[in-house]
Amino acid sequence: MSNVFIAFQANEESRPVVEAILADNPHATAVYSPGLVKIDAPNQLVVKRETIEEHLGQRYVLQQMHVNLVTLSGHIDEDDEQFTLSWKH
Amino acid sequence: MTVDLQAREIKPLRNTFSHVAKYVGNDKPATRYQEGTFGAQPTANFHYRATWAPDFELFDVSRSAVVMEDWYSLKDPRQFYYGTWTMARARQQDAMEANYQFVESRNLVSKMPDALRTKVCEVLIPFRHVAWGGNMNNCFIAAYGYGTALTAAACLHAMDELGVAQYITRLALALEEPAVLDEGKQDWLNKADWQALRHMVEDIFVLSDPMEVFVAQNLALDGLIYPLIFGNFVDGHVALNGGTAVSMLSAFMLEWHEESNRWVDGVLKAAVAESTANSELIASWANQWAKRAHRALVPIAELAMANAGDAALGDVVSLLEARAKKIGITLQIA
To answer: Rounded to a whole number, what is the distance in Å from the CA of B39 to chain A's nearest CA?
Structure first.
């Protein structure tokens, strides 16, 4: 079992994204360091557009996430509704 | 000599202001929306009462028959404060400018059939005055409502309504000569089809309960007008008959309506959930005003879509009834 992670700049724009990720991935943990939020999760981490919209209260296009994305690790599976990191091929 | 640079984290002792922490706790930093909203309502030590309203303090919960334990629970799910709201609207304005450029550079308006263009002007232009009424009414909510959560959002909503009125004006100027604006105003003032609607808009002007204004304007009236006129008429009827340009030039309206519905529904849902008394009161307002809006829109629907108007109105009525159900009240319009 190995971790995947995703890190965002810590600001108002990324905040609903981080909250949504933590809500969708109960096994994930967030580490806050100055200016940065890093979310670690064993095996898999999923980002869902719908949950982000709930937290944000507005429409959201998953691509907007990249504005505040700092780094990530894992293989990416991405479409309009979700963005999944895992080690699966 | 070497200089050793290290990052050192300084944990703030407090994550937010104490008046905000009262509502959201001090566990994590409060959002800008929370900091701009909670605790901002003036509650005590008011100046003297206005001579024209000696029964009320400057900010007074008793101006509304709706009773809330905490008026801050009428939150805006979009979490709009000035910053986020202007950024969202600026993006939409950019999109609208691009639409205008597209339509103008390809001369799409002149490719519309003349009769259709005349029909669009005849139906849409008087709605400038309806949207301006929406501006007035939401200003009223902002002025006399209670709780920053509600009044700040109402103020933004009022400016949005003004924006809609301006977009309609700009659309009219893109379609025809400026004289159509005067013709539209004459229709609004004198033509029989519009009088029931004008009567309703003007009756909402003189309501004194901000929450009743909210229900009448934002739920009942706008909840029927936008899907009917900008949904069924513009995006359906007009677009199918060669007027896609009009759809593009009024794209903001439906998009905004769907977005602001979240706010309207969120506020009413919280107020209805508070108590049975609130729920009964809001349901009776909603029924009364939605029935009236429905009656006022019958001639407009026919003016806009002739025989298809009746069915279109029926559609938007069931849409609104379904929305009311989600809010937690029973709405029986027709």
So the answer is: 20
Choose among A1, A4, A11: nearest CA to A67.
Answer: A11
Q: What is the ipTM of this complex?
A: 0.77
Q: Are B31 and A15 in contact (CB < 8 Å)?
A: yes
Nearest CB to A58; choose among B10, B31, B259: B259
pLDDT tens string B75-103 = 999 999 999 999 999 999 999 999 999 99
DSSP state letters, B182-194? HHHHHHHHH-HHH
Whether residue B76 and residue A12 make contact (CB cut-off 8 A), yes or no, is no
- Closest to B302 in 3D by CA, of B289, B316, B313: B313
User: CB under 8 Å to B244, separation ≥6 — which residues?
Assistant: B108
Compute the distance between CA of residue A52 and CA of residue A17 in angstroms, rounded to an integer: 6
Q: pLDDT tens across B9-58, in order? A: 788 889 899 999 999 888 888 889 999 999 999 999 998 898 998 999 99
Q: How many CB atoms lie within 10 A of CB B295?
A: 14
In order of A54, B81, B318, the CA distances from B77 in angstroms are 8, 11, 24
Coil, strand or helix: which one is A30? strand
Q: Is A55 on the interface with B (CB under 8 A)?
A: no
Helix (H, G, I), strand (E, B) or coil at A83: strand
Is the CB of B77 less than 8 angstroms away from the CB of A34?
A: no
Q: Kindly identify which residue of chain B lies nearest to residue A14, measuring between CA atoms.
A: B31
Instruction: Kindly report the pTM of this predicted structure.
Output: 0.91
